[in-house]
């Protein structure tokens, strides 16, 4: 058991480095690194947004740690999430991916990634996936003080979900889209007392 962690009244955990993080990011080295360097930082390129959208879809019903641990294998399996390559995947590729123990072998989610690659390419004529997703940035970001105050959906994530579905995307429900918005820095749901609050530079 770790003895160098102390929990604050708002549920944050202070590590041996003196920095406060939510419990999910406090004790696991991989999640801690992800939280400290990547989660909530702005992503504006098409491939980066497509990767995160795809991984959030795969995460549905699973832990994020499971997906993060498998991310290198996902990148190898899906051509580093290049939409131009993924959209060419056929039935043989689906079977190849279903046999790949390094990823989450869910046929519906694999096919969804291929579908979403084609939808991503189609969006280029209208500004692209990244611009569309970022256009749903709210006027204000949440300011949760405890994990219980962190929202799992928002009016904007519902609207983004509906818009993406109209544009041919699948596995883009409001909760998944809210998680995407958090991961991309479109909203800042770092707890107010966390050392990462405001680190994205998107919100003052």
Description:
The chain is mostly helical and 204 residues long. The protein folds into two domains: 6-37, no CATH class; 46-184, Hypothetical protein, domain 2 (Endonuclease III, domain 1). It has helices spanning 29-37, 46-59, 64-77, 83-86, 91-98, 107-123, 129-134, 155-166, 174-184, and strands at 6-7, 12-14, 20-22. It has a three-stranded antiparallel sheet, with no helix packed on it. It is globular. Keywords: Glycosidase, Hydrolase.
List the helices and strands and how they pair.
Elements: E1 6-7, E2 12-14, E3 20-22, H1 29-37, H2 46-59, H3 64-77, H4 83-86, H5 91-98, H6 107-123, H7 129-134, H8 155-166, H9 174-184
Antiparallel strand pairs: 1-2, 2-3
List keywords for this structure.
204 residues, globular, mainly alpha, 3-stranded antiparallel β-sheet, Endonuclease III, domain 1, 2 domains, DNA-3mA_glycosylase, glycosidase, DNA-3-methyladenine glycosylase activity, 9 helices
């Amino acid at each position: 058991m770790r003895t160098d962690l102390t929990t604050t009244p708002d549920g944050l955990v202070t590590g041996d480095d003196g920095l406060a993080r939510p419990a999910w990011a406090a004790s696991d080295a991989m999640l801690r690194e992800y939280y400290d360097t990547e989660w909530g930082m702005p992503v504006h390129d098409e491939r980066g947004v497509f990767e995160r959208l795809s991984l959030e879809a795969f995460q549905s019903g699973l832990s994020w740690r499971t997906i993060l641990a498998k991310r290198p294998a996902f990148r190898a399996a899906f051509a580093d999430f290049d939409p131009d390559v993924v959209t060419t995947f056929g039935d043989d590729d689906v079977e190849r991916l279903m046999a790949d123990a390094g990823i989450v072998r869910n046929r519906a989610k694999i096919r969804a990634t291929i579908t979403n690659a084609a939808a991503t390419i189609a969006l280029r004529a209208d500004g692209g996936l990244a611009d569309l997703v970022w256009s749903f940035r709210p006027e204000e970001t949440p300011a949760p003080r405890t994990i219980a105050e962190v929202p799992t959906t928002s009016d904007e994530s519902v609207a983004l979900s509906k818009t993406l579905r109209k544009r041919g995307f699948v596995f883009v429900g409001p909760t998944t889209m809210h998680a995407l918005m958090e991961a991309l820095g479109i909203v800042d749901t770092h707890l107010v007392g966390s050392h990462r609050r405001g680190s994205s530079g998107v919100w003052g």
